[in-house]
Design goal:
CATH superfamily: Rhodopsin 7-helix transmembrane proteins
Mean pLDDT: 94
Structural class: mainly alpha
Shape: globular
Bound molecules: retinal
Strand content: under 5%
Largest sheet: none
Low-confidence stretches: none
Number of domains: 1
Order of helices and strands: HHHHHHHHHH
CATH architecture: Up-down Bundle
Helix content: over 70%
Distance between the termini: 67 Å
């Protein structure tokens, strides 16, 4: 007859992990609506980029809704769906770099390099979490993943992406510099979550132990998916009139 307070309130007020999944769902949904509607307010040449920004947050919103339920039902970390989300959204971020630099001659091979590196980063991270998460050697998978991550940082800061961006005019150069900071600092949030949540730590050292892996990942996603999209939106707004075809 009588429902307990826990049955009425699906998220207990002290369940911070589930709460951040809930807030994440809302934030990703709101961002998607914003990007989709704003497509008609930007110059034609930026429409696909804004569409991709909206797809990234939309895919995340659906996964967050699901991960929230999974976490509430099982009390566990939704490792599998976390990585499904990333495997879809991180390559789309590579597409964003490609679309931006394409106007300055970016080739499809650059897109494949970025996607290939991100797949190595994510597949090895998944193996480290899902298979070796409770074992000491999980740091080895984190290290391989980290090397692929640094290769992406290299491409964006010093490699082909930055070279093309610098040839594409000041607005694009500035946007790619900002996106580079997202990749260098924003994406570095993820290894912190990995180190906190797996047994192997950082080269076997125990650091960040008090942190919840899911909360760290959820903060990282909010910054990197919504913030990344907003940088591209700002670029589309400033680069309205100039007519580089
Ligand atoms: C929207 C989702 C994004 C931008 C996800 C990015 C994920 C990473 C940059 C993950 C990186 C990792 C390492 C560099 C080492 C440890 C394992 C990972 C997969 C957490």
């Amino acid at each position: 007859m009588h429902q307990t307070i826990l049955e009425i309130l699906p998220i207990a007020s002290n369940n911070y992990v589930a709460f951040t999944f809930f807030v994440g769902t809302m934030a990703m949904m709101a961002a998607s609506v914003f990007f989709f509607f704003e497509m008609s307010n930007v110059d034609k040449k930026w429409r696909t980029s804004i569409l991709v920004s909206g797809l990234i947050t939309f895919i995340a919103a659906v996964h967050y809704y699901y991960m929230r339920g999974y976490n509430l039902d099982t009390g566990k970390s939704p490792v599998f769906f976390r990585y499904v989300d990333w495997i879809l959204t991180v390559p789309l971020m590579c597409v964003e770099f490609y679309l931006i630099t394409k106007k300055a001659g970016g080739k499809i091979s650059l897109l494949w390099q970025l996607i290939f590196a991100s797949l190595i980063m994510l597949v090895t991270g998944y193996i480290g979490e899902a298979i070796y998460g409770n074992e000491k050697q999980s740091w080895i998978w984190g290290l391989i993943s980290g090397l692929a991550y640094f290769y992406i940082v290299y491409l964006v800061w010093f490699g082909e992406v930055s070279r093309l961006a610098n040839n594409a005019g000041p607005a694009v150069a500035k946007a790619v510099k900002t996106l580079g900071w997202f990749v260098l600092v924003g994406w570095a949030i993820y290894p912190v979550g990995y180190i906190a949540g797996t047994e192997g730590g950082l080269f076997g050292m125990k650091v960040f132990q008090g942190l919840s892996m899911d909360i760290v990942y959820n903060i990282g996603d909010a910054i990197n998916k919504i913030g990344f999209g907003l940088v591209i939106y700002a670029l589309a707004q400033t680069d309205k009139s100039s007519a580089i075809a």
